[in-house]
Amino acid sequence: MKTMQVEVVSNEATIYSGEASFVVVPTENGELGIYPQHVPILSMVRPGVLRMQIPGQAGETTVAIAGGLLEVQPSKLTVLADVAVRSENLDAERAKKALDIAQQQLKAATDDKSTAAARAALAAAIAELKTLEYLRNRR
């Protein structure tokens, strides 16, 4: 089975570093499925669910991703994420509270810096909720 090296890195930590046989990334132009030996691509990532098929593991590994950049090379895929959280670390109540707070902060924002911070928090909460919904619908 062919694999590619996958690196998913957030501002705070490396979320995943290892091999994958298939990855689906939510891009600005829709979901992009990537197999090893894919043509090179650079793309913006939108909030959503990043899914990976990892050799030797049943099912897929999911990561909530709040935006960032995707670089694809034939043998390597790199996601530089604004915020990324592995599915096992998601919490629905925390995500809903974060969404409410981010919406309030966006309404109260008075300058570019506070608006950008609120939008980033909103994207992270949306990504977590989308991932939780995806996982709930898969069961």
Key traits:
single chain, 139 residues, alpha+beta, 5-stranded mixed beta sheet, 5-stranded antiparallel beta sheet, 2 helices, 32% helix, 40% strand, hydrogen ion transport
What topology does this entry show?
Elements lengths: L3 E6 L4 E7 L1 E6 L2 E5 L6 E5 L2 E6 L7 E5 L2 E6 L2 E6 L2 E3 L5 H17 L3 H27 L1
Parallel strand pairs: 1-9
Antiparallel strand pairs: 1-2, 3-4, 3-6, 5-8, 6-7, 7-10, 8-9
Helix pairs in contact: 1-2
Structure, explained:
The structure is a single chain. With about 140 residues, this protein is of the alpha+beta class. About 30% of the residues lie in helices and about 40% in strands. The protein is built from two helices and ten strands; from the N terminus they run E-E-E-E-E-E-E-E-E-E-H-H. The chain has helices at about 90-110, 110-139, and strands at about 5-10, 15-20, 20-25, 30-35, 40-45, 50-55, 60-65, 70-75, 75-80, 85. It is a peripheral membrane protein.
Summarize the structure.
The mean pLDDT is 89.
Side-by-side strand order of the widest sheet: 2-1-9-8-5
How many distinct beta strands? 10
DSSP helix count? Answer: 2
Q: Report low-confidence residues grouped into runs of 5 or more.
A: none
What level of helicity do the residues show?
Answer: 25-40%
Structural class: alpha+beta
What's the alpha carbon Rg, rounded to whole Å? 15 Å
Reading the helices and strands in chain order gives EEEEEEEEEEHH
**Form type:** globular
**Terminal CA distance:** 27 Å
Q: What is the averaged pLDDT score? A: 89
The amount of beta strand, in percent, is 35-45%
The largest pleated sheet is described as: 5 strands, mixed
